[in-house]
Specification:
35% of the residues lie in helices and 25% in strands. The protein has 19 helices and 18 strands. Strand 8 and strand 9 form a beta hairpin.
Length: 494
């Protein structure tokens, strides 16, 4: 798109310059205002050819012309200006085309301000939701959604359109969900923003996932595992073959754990490949393949053909069905190491889940090496956390002796943590290592409870592992109870 042809003019009158064409070629949308043709000639100042385009093709042309690099050039400027969100919204005019112009356009400044503010607050996601009377903007910070702004609903359509332009989505398609991606830099940091749109009753909602490679590649030592679990996990991932699973709900840090494990294994002497949907972070020295279900590029199909690329280690983004599970386990039988994730509530629950998918118990027993279950607990704000003495009933509720006389901490409220009482997160882990005893139980189709009794007779389960953060004053008992289920049986106390 030539900068001389203003976005508002192209959108309204139906004339747009096609980039890279020689001689200069102007796209004409069906139903264009022919009376505006002299104005096009005056602005361009040269001869040009006309080319007819449908309304949809014309919208795509506008997206390509005005979307490129829209975030990169102005995000840093927004950060330097330190404009707050209220100021940016107040600065939006009532009648001007919000998508018009360059990086100084009101809607562009607003989007850059949102991203800069979200990153400053350590948000992992931005949710933009249109409702009947308002537009709600929320951040997900430390796993919890917080509403940061309520704006006029009239902002919703141009805001969503501009985001779709930036992420190379079809701005004319409002009836179907779309997924896209934007790369940007802020203060010298390279970031990716994953964009997902979804039609709703009052317009399209948008979810922006902020991906920061620096935060993902923390290394195993930075995951917050206790020394015993860390040593056992290091020994497991050093195995030359088998399947290692990481389990937990969405947002529990499974991908970060797997990436940290791959970073440790990436010595340059082994061929490591990943199959992801989508690829979240770039890993240097590791071959990463994004899945594309539209063309049949699924986890199972790709994993079947990946042997011809001679991998030593493969990471499969998620085991979602029986076919993927079966292929991953068969892959491990060939003497290779496979890592993946499963959505279950406990480590032993992953075994039950795979059985329910139809995986034979003998195959599980011979290939599964370990299952790591994990949760993320919010860390208490050090500036406002307050000490308290639990009464006997409360102590018993969290598994402490009734005569417990120590000090625990609960959340407070201050400006440093945004009045939430928490800042940052900690990990709670339970590692089920498949030793000969567990192998026999799996082979004999033992229940989940039986496997847990043997596996965690001398090791922490999730709740017990999280209690170390409660006793050290790093998180609150209420947060632990909210995130982790309390074990129904005791295995030696906290």
């Amino acid at each position: 798109m030539r900068p001389q042809v203003h976005y508002a003019f192209a959108k309204d009158k139906g004339f747009a310059v096609i980039p890279g064409r020689v001689p200069v070629t102007v796209a004409v949308r069906e139903g264009a205002d022919v009376l505006a043709l002299p104005e096009v000639r005056r602005v361009l100042g040269t001869s040009f050819q006309l080319e007819a385009h449908s309304a949809i093709a014309f919208e795509k042309l506008l997206s390509e012309g005005f979307g490129g690099g829209a975030l990169d050039g102005t995000a840093a400027a927004a950060a330097e200006k330190q404009e707050n969100l209220e100021t940016l919204f107040d600065g939006i005019p009532q009648t001007e085309d919000l998508l018009a112009g360059d990086g100084d356009a009101p809607i562009v400044r607003l989007i850059n301000g949102l991203l800069q503010d979200a990153i400053k607050r350590r948000a992992s996601d931005i949710h933009i939701d249109p409702f009947e009377e308002k537009l709600s903007i929320r951040y997900r910070i430390d796993g919890e959604l917080q509403e940061v702004l309520v704006a006029s609903r009239r902002i919703a359509a141009p805001l969503v359109s501009r985001i779709k332009v930036m992420s190379r989505l079809d701005i004319s398609e409002k009836r179907m969900p779309q997924d896209g991606r934007v790369s940007l830099s802020l203060g010298g940091r390279a970031l990716d923003v994953r964009v997902a749109t979804l039609p709703t009753r009052y317009g399209e909602r948008v979810a922006l996932r902020i991906l920061d490679t620096r935060q993902a590649l923390v290394g195993l030592d930075g995951l917050g595992m206790d020394p015993a679990t860390l040593d056992r996990f290091r020994a497991v991932i050093a195995e030359p073959n088998g399947v290692i699973l990481v389990t937990g709900p969405t947002g529990s840090g499974k991908t970060t754990t797997l990436y940290s494990a791959l970073a440790m294994l990436n010595t340059g002497r082994v061929n490591i490949m990943t199959l992801e949907d989508p690829v979240e972070y770039g890993l240097d020295g590791i071959s990463q393949t994004p899945m594309d279900h539209k063309v049949g590029l699924t986890f199972a199909a790709t994993l079947r053909s990946i042997l011809r690329n001679d991998p030593n280690i493969v990471m499969v983004g998620e085991i979602r069905d029986a076919e993927t599970a079966e292929v991953a386990l068969e892959f491990a039988l060939t003497g290779r190491l496979a890592l993946s994730t499963v959505h279950t509530n406990s480590s032993a629950g992953a075994i039950t889940r795979l059985r329910d998918m139809g995986i034979e118990s003998f195959l599980l027993a011979s290939t599964l090496r370990a299952v790591l279950a994990q949760r993320l607990l919010r860390r208490l704000c050090p500036h406002c956390k307050t000490p308290f003495q639990p009464d006997p009933a409360y102590a018993a509720r969290i598994g402490l002796p009734a005569d417990f006389s120590g000090t625990l901490y609960q959340s407070g409220s201050c400006d440093a943590c945004g009045r939430t009482g928490y800042s940052g997160r900690l990990g709670a882990y339970e590692l089920l290592v498949i030793n000969p005893s567990i192998k026999r139980l799996i082979h004999d189709k033992a229940s989940e409870d039986e496997i847990e009794r043997v596996a965690f007779a001398s090791a922490d389960m999730l709740f017990s592992n999280g209690m170390r953060h409660v006793l050290s004053g790093e998180t609150s008992p209420d947060e632990l109870l909210h995130v982790c289920r309390r074990e129904a049986w005791s295995h030696g106390g906290v």
